[in-house]
């Protein structure tokens, strides 16, 4: 597809994980679908998808949530990219990021996976790390809590108050990335919040 983008929100399936830190990527694609009044439908690539538009007459968006667990997200992502004929440079993966403070968004293309097993699996399945990432900061746990447990915990009470703003800002970042490119999105979303 000429002007189509695959926007994937990483997370884990099922109600147990819905509002956990690891699923913030899926919350962002939910927001993008909600803005367009669209509901996800099952896809044969083992994912739920929405086919929509950035804006009428604009780029086509394939919003996707893999049905697999985070660490094996690559298969559904690669399957959707193949099905829709979308190259890796038009894939945007939205995911949680431990090494960024909560309430912060960073965008990049390519590079390493930073220990994120979902990103690692997507890069392996696509055969390249050269896809865009919208990294939604969840911060690291205080004290000695294992980060693997932290990401599977629900957001805390204070975080939940700010979560709709964070998710909305990340959805804005995805839209700007598609509309104006990575550098413009970075310039806006990497700036300190006022």
TrEMBL record:
Q: Which residues form the active site?
A: 22
Q: Which reaction does it catalyse?
A: an N-acyl-L-alpha-aminoacyl-tRNA + H2O = an N-acyl-L-amino acid + a tRNA + H(+)
Q: Which keywords appear in this protein's UniProt record, sorted alphabetically?
A: Cytoplasm, Hydrolase, RNA-binding, tRNA-binding
Q: What is its EC number?
A: 3.1.1.29
Q: Does the keyword Disulfide bond apply?
A: no
* Compartments where found: Cytoplasm
The record's PROSITE patterns line, in alphabetical order, gives: PEPT_TRNA_HYDROL_1, PEPT_TRNA_HYDROL_2
Under CDD domains, the record lists: PTH
Indicate whether tRNA-binding appears among the record's keywords: yes
| Gene3D superfamilies per the UniProt record, alphabetical | Peptidyl-tRNA hydrolase (3.40.50.1470)
> What Pfam families does the entry give?
Pept_tRNA_hydro
Site-annotated residues for Discriminates between blocked and unblocked aminoacyl-tRNA: 12
Q: Name one GO biological process term.
A: rescue of stalled ribosome
Which InterPro entries does its entry note?
A: Pept_tRNA_hydro, Pept_tRNA_hydro_CS, Pept_tRNA_hydro_sf
Molecular function terms from GO: peptidyl-tRNA hydrolase activity; tRNA binding
**Gene Ontology cellular component annotations, sorted alphabetically:** cytoplasm
Q: What does this protein do?
A: Hydrolyzes ribosome-free peptidyl-tRNAs (with 1 or more amino acids incorporated), which drop off the ribosome during protein synthesis, or as a result of ribosome stalling. Catalyzes the release of premature peptidyl moieties from peptidyl-tRNA molecules trapped in stalled 50S ribosomal subunits, and thus maintains levels of free tRNAs and 50S ribosomes.
The similarity comment for this entry is:
Belongs to the PTH family.
What HAMAP family is this protein classified in? Pept_tRNA_hydro_bact
Q: What is this protein called?
A: Peptidyl-tRNA hydrolase
Q: Give the gene that encodes this protein.
A: pth
């Amino acid at each position: 597809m000429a002007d189509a983008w695959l926007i994937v929100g990483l997370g884990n399936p099922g109600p147990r994980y819905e509002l956990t830190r690891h699923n913030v990527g899926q919350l962002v694609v939910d927001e993008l679908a909600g803005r367009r009044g669209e509901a996800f439908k099952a896809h044969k690539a083992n994912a739920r998808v929405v086919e929509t538009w950035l804006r009428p007459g604009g780029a086509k968006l394939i919003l996707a949530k893999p049905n697999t667990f985070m660490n094996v997200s690559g298969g559904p992502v690669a399957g959707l990219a193949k099905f829709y004929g979308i190259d890796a440079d038009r894939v945007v993966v939205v995911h949680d990021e431990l090494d960024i403070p909560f309430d912060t968004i960073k965008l990049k293309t390519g590079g390493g996976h930073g220990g994120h097993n979902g990103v690692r699996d997507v890069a392996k399945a696509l055969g390249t790390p050269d896809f865009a990432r919208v990294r939604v900061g969840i911060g690291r746990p205080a004290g000695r809590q294992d980060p693997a447990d932290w990401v599977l915990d629900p957001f805390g009470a204070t975080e939940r108050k700010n979560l709709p703003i964070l998710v909305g800002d990340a959805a804005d970042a995805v839209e700007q990335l598609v509309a104006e490119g990575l550098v413009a999105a970075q310039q806006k979303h990497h700036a300190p919040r006022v």
